[in-house]
Design goal:
By secondary structure, the protein is an alpha/beta fold. It has six helices and ten strands, in the order E-E-H-E-H-H-H-E-E-H-E-H-E-E-E-E. A hairpin with a 5-residue loop joins strand 9 and strand 10 (190-196). The longest helix has 10 residues, at 43-52.
Length: 198
């Protein structure tokens, strides 16, 4: 899968990238957990997401994000609205970090139980495709603390939510980042890529 900068299949240590939509005041969900405010249908953004959905790679989710995605992308409505993205989301290998799930219904999904940091560190040590992580705020913070995230791709929407969940809630230390790419869209969204500065 090539999200944002285009992440190719690499037959070495996988690169882990976080992709998330953010509000102008820094939330990736509103106070009720809703993310529908981030959905955009204008041609420029649809073309961008369709292009980024092409290629090879794997996905990584926490339980909540996985269940939300699994309830939408396999549906006829998702296929009708975003066929290219839906096809890729459904066919891509998916890893799910969960201590409570025992089975997974979405095709090509692998359950990773136990300690999330240990599981992701093992994924990064094995040869395989690059991995993109969506949503999953608590796990993003956990993996950021552990130094396991290689890139953050953030689409900041021109909306103020006033309350919600931040992407890095629970982070225990400051993380310096360097911006590597920025693109502004006509719909007001600004897409930016960051890598750890250290």
């Amino acid at each position: 899968m090539s999200i944002g900068n285009g992440l190719p299949y690499i037959s070495g240590m996988p690169k882990i990238t976080v992709f998330n939509n953010l509000s102008l005041d820094g939330y990736f969900t509103d106070a009720t957990g809703d993310m529908s405010w981030a959905h955009k249908q204008d041609p420029e953004w649809v073309a961008f997401t369709a292009e980024n959905a092409r290629g090879e790679g794997a996905m990584l989710f926490g339980r909540v994000t996985y269940q939300m995605m699994a309830a939408w992308w396999p549906t006829p409505a998702a296929l009708a609205a975003f066929k290219v993205v839906a096809d890729r989301m459904n066919s891509a290998p998916k890893y799910v970090l969960s201590r409570t799930l025992d089975t997974l219904s979405w095709q090509n999904s692998t359950l990773l139980k136990g300690d999330a940091v240990s599981a992701v560190r093992k994924l990064k040590s094995d040869a395989g495709p690059d991995i993109v992580m969506f949503g999953s705020g608590q796990i993003v913070a956990l993996l950021t603390d552990a130094g396991l995230i290689d890139e953050y791709q953030l689409a900041t929407a021109p909306i103020v939510l006033g309350a919600g969940r931040t992407l890095f809630e629970g982070l225990t230390k400051k993380i310096a980042l360097k911006r590597t790419k920025t693109r502004a869209f006509e719909n007001g969204t600004v897409f930016s890529c960051y890598e750890p500065a250290g």
